[in-house]
User: Fold this.
Amino acid sequence: MAVDELIELGKDILFPRRCPVCDEVMVFRSGLICKTCKPRVIPVRQPFCACCGKPLISSEAELCKICMVESRAFDKARAAVIYNDAAARIILDMKDNNKRENTDFIAECIIERLSKELKMFGAEGIIPVPLDEDAYMRRGFNQSELIALKLSKYLHIPIYNSVVKRLKAAKQQKSLDLNGRRKNLKRSFIIQKNDVKLKRVILVDDVYTTGCTADELSSVLKSKGVNSVMVVTFATGVPK
Ligand SMILES: [Zn+2]
Ligand SMILES: [Zn+2]
Assistant:
């Protein structure tokens, strides 16, 4: 047995994994989620919007209602699972209760569902959606960066986490409607340096809600020489 496998084994024995949804201690080496909770995490399946990746009610249209009337700065967005109670638990525990090991399950879901599309996109770099300084100091880590690191390792594509800086927005996004969100995000992303001259990038975030964050960041990247952006998230909200 190789040294790193031994270390992993030691970790599994000393700190048994817990299910990311119900927090029950898992049977030794039985996977990353318990049998009861597995069906509660629902993959995004066809039909979904060709642009933003949100599930569609019927397969007749290629795009969702929003993407039909509005253009997006990113080329496409894809999510691994539907944002439901189970997905929310996984994300909130990761962000607010410091359950960083949840990123293992999140990365596994993204790879399982999107590996082919991510590889075909042929990105030169992966950029995690940054947090502003206050949020980073409060949490101590950027969840998108942890997910991006795992994807970077799997896809053998370098991660660039100092290309973009995020300034503190005036208001909390959650409290705003669509137009309010857009205005609030304007000028909140600054390209620090794109001296690597990236042309095709994968943006990584935990959740896709209205797409405003991904859209604003993509438009800033494109104004600085990036040609194509694929957004990838763990979960996506279902359109109302
Ligand atoms: Zn469970
Ligand atoms: Zn759409």
